[in-house]
Amino acid sequence: MIILAAILKSPSVKGFFGELGVRLALRKLSKEDFQTLHNITLSDGNKTSQIDHVVIGRTGIFVIETKNYQGWIFGSEHSAKWTQTIYKSKKRFQNPIHQNYGHIKMLQQFFPGYQHPMVSIVNFSSNSTLKNIDIKSSNVHVLQTSGLVRAILSYKEPLLTRQAVAAFADHLGKSNITDSKVKKQHVQTIKETQQKTKSRIAENICPKCSQPLVTRNGKHGTFKGCSSYPKCRYTA
Ligand SMILES: [Zn+2]
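^ NERD domain-containing protein, sequence as received from the core. Prediction below:
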């Protein structure tokens, strides 16, 4: 029992149940009008973003960041830090709206044809109490799981056709970086680099600086070295 209680209290398990709660809530959205994707990782080549949930509907694209926090939550739209208070202990954390804004910026790179603002939703689990959350923008929501679907359904104006919703969801699913894809890509890049190096050496071109390689005599016999030594110290 003690072990079970410890497991249930661990942050990763709490996170799992928080995520699950959001997934279950999102199931209430009609499958005909909404496509939901979970745990999406996107990369633009420089940065990587992990997005908890993306709902693509005829009425818009909703980007959801989940926070499984306890205690009282205080914050405002533009402040850098928010505060979590549990009894007398106070913790500061990064403004989750700013965090989600980064996710939206990343998503926009994948949907250049989407001309409407994406809706930012920060979803706190029911363990927390939202206090004085000051939001001015109409496309930003800070709420709890019980209010999630209502907030999404408050958008009534159709912006996308069903085909566009399906195409966007498909594109996002394909852009999602899964671990195996990252690994494959990584291995592929290493292989390509090794191959390039090999062929350049065979052509007597320095793989580091592209100057000719020359054969030199060393203590242990001949070797290929860069002709621009000592500027480049490459040896094959
Ligand atoms: Zn060189």
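The CA atoms of residues 226 and 234 lie 6 Å apart.
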